[in-house]
Amino acid sequence: MRQRPLERILLFHLPLWFFLIVTLFPFFWMFITSIKPNAELYNVRMNPLYVLHPTLDHFRYLMRETIFLTWAYNTLYVSILSTAISLVTGIMAGYALSRLRFRGAGGMAVGIFVTYLVPPTLLFIPLADVVRAFGLLDSPWSLILTYPTFLIPFSTWLLMGYFKTIPRELEECAMIDGATRLQAMIKIVLPLALPGILSAGIFAFTLSWNEFIYALVFLSSTEIKTIPVGVVSELIRGDVFFWGPLMAGALLGSVPVAIIYSFFVEYYVAGLTAGAVKG
Amino acid sequence: MLTSEITLPKEKVYRTAKWRLFLERDSSIGYAMVAPAVLILTLFIAYPFILGIRMSLSHWLVGQEPVFVGLQNFIRNADSTIFTRTVQNTFIYTAAATVLKLVFGMALALVLNNTFRGKGLVRAAFLLPWIIPTVLSTLAWLWMFDATFSVLNWFLRYLGLIQRGISWLGDPVLAMISIIVVNAWRGIPFFAISLLAGLQTISQELYEAAAIDGANAMQRFRYITLPMVKPVLLVVLLFSIIWTFADFQLVYVLTRGGPANSTHLFATLAYQVGVVSGSLGDGAAISLTMFPILVVVVVILLMYLRKE
Amino acid sequence: MADHPQLSHSAITPAMSRRTFLQVGGLTTGAVMLGGVLPVAAGQAPAKLQGTRLTYLQWVNFVPAHDAALKKQIAEFEKQTGAKVAFETINMNDIQARTTVAIESKAGPDIIQLAHNWPHLYEAGLEPVDELAEELGRKGEGYYDLPKSHSFVNGRWRAVPHSIVSPASTYRTDWFKEVGYDKFPDTWDAYREAGKKLKAKGHPIGQALGHSLGDPPIFCYAVLWAFGGKEVEDDGKTVALDSKETQEALEFAVGFWKDACDEGGLAWDDANNNRAYLAEQISCTFNGASIWVEAKRNFPHLVKVTDHAYFPAGPHGRYHPHATWENAIMGYSKNKEAAQEFIKYLMEYNNYVEWLKAGQGYSTSPTKVFAKDPMWGELDPQVEPFKDIVKYGRHFGYAGPASRKAAEVWSKYIIVDMFAKAVQGTPPKEAIKWASGELKQVYGA
Asked: Nearest to residue B41, comparing CAs of A218, A136, A114, A198?
């Protein structure tokens, strides 16, 4: 639609810039704080929006005083494994529920969706008991096995949507040619559903990286912690000045996700919207 | 290998082993393929849920054995002003944040629904609050709200709008507003991007036809845009409401439920009572109270969705 | 400390000179103590724990020097015994959650340093340590009431008292002088008057009233008790909060807050008042000596204008809710003996004094003997009030015992919220009614 320049500024540029600034300011603030020396940080008279003598001290403090890199490794490890588990189970369940006819399929699909009504914050206390019974408390496996509970429903649902768009004839042809169901699925359907799988994967990864309450309750030892829990529990140190290293930790903790996300933006958006549009 | 099987005489095909057929049946494969998902969900959602119900019906202090007490925990909660305040807080928080996300999400979606240079980059930038771990971005907000060093206060003072710093997290009303704002900040991208996808499925011709018929912008929005994004909208609303109602991280980092319990949500109160104070039965009861409410909300929304 | 050819040699020498000093000072208990129960020289630990792994969980001490001294002592212990000690520190407000999970899952740190009356909360999960606690009590010439009431639960010692962190008034001598106070005001009314004048000059008093376990309860309970209010009667059951005295306390607090305080305090956690003082935003705050220690490190210009004083007194007396810290051995621990040896090692006279000195007055001991140690003469005169400030201590849950229910009330911030509500406009009567109701739920159940 052709718009007059004034209209364009009012209806487009102004709101766009407004939203951009509000959206990105906290990240700018995170960054600025992480490189600002303490003398400037805690000086109420100074203009806080710029830095006179940027420093890497806070990052050094972070690395020296905490085992941040171990937490980063833990978070990566937990996220990748839980994503893998959710993808595999989600692909299988999604395929079965959208392609195969068997009794109870409809019921199971609804059942899987209903589990979304039981959010982690509802379950964490009794779940801690179950995790304890399995002997998994204070182990990364407590997360790797429980994260799929909120990753699988969404992945299944998303993939069901993708699978439904792939014509049945393709598999039927392959099976007439003598392939087993499994072979048909792996060789034909999966490659076609790859965009959906990538979307589900990247979505699952960011959700895992973001999870907090299970990690907070199930993990205790400092070497096992993930970044969100480590940063919040070990960098907030009572009376001692900590905002610099804290923001440094927050920044570094966000970077891996942001990087991976930036390579897969299209898939992420597709996943997000597929859930909504195909709903 | 495959071709040789095809050239076999007909009789052979009928004698394919029964067990082979069994394995190839839809149901066998079907059940086998959903089994892992069902197993995980049963073990780690269904079973703990039942366990949670049992816990909520017990008096269970850390280190001791649980004692069945029926509905006592729930009855005590109904009497406790901290609990009723929490219920109130959660509803206000969810309602206000959802309205904000809806309105601004839609606005942002409309803005993004134009073509412009760098659209991909901008779209990616807008998703950052949603992508970055909530705890970490909330810490940035905590620092922005700091009682002494708040950059927001500095800015308002610079503009001459205030004399003394605003206590963003120290005043009960302001604290609630603050957490609502941060939740909206985080959630608007989710609404915006989803709605944008919905908007993009609407063909331009519809708008043009309506414009020719004399409809103005508002009317075009009401009679074309809204109905067509409704399905997307309802799905997004569904998830958003569930997640916001059950929110934990944000409040935990910003206020831990204070000041004076004015920002406690179900999840943070359950954590405070169950894990911090060690009163596990109580904590489970608080958490569980969320469930019937969520079911009602979802049923209403789904019925509305079905109608479309 | 220069060269030490052999550990045992170095351990004996300073010990012997101390013993001599104490004997000269007329204290024979020194000899008794240093003679000790273990047949090794003072400051040493038995070398029979080879290969044991211990985990020790403590809060992140507000005075980093304390933790540094502790780490050194741990390294010593490891060398002497061959045991390995994993030392972990987390935010104080998170220790309770960790403890709950550890007890429920029957796995976790061997020793957790608990605060206040938490041993009452976790009684069932803590190993009784009667012998060790009694022995250290004897050596220390007896415990003060407060630490004992926190660790001695239902007739058994569930934790070994370790230290006390006392809040005192940390104030700007120059600004107080400006408004006419050469000495710190001695009564709450005088303090409020001073605060009024200070706030008018842009130097309000700073006090936290948020949901943090350190500073907010200190202020609230101190005011409550100074005006005669109390949570329960001495039967430990009857809620006694609804009284004329509590009303007076609340009314005072409301007036005090408006007249003299930085109203942002409602959002403060335990760190904000430190930062505000060091950023020269406030003129006074209740805090342990951590502000002083930080000033000496990074804000030297504030050192000569800062001093400490006891809390003001009210019509019913002067009370300080001190924070006690105690080391508890967890019931599930598989290394209880090693844990006992470790705790004993930390509480050995020399080691403990080293640790106390590192805090420069921030921490004091739960037993009476350490108040007489010459180290207090070596510290700055500004931290002198901390030496015996413990005598004004009183436990949460007064006038009932320091029980599990008192711990629960404190964890739920009931008293803190009562004050917070009143300060924000709820009529005191209503706030009291609310708090009484919540108290009754805790004590009635």
From this structure: A114
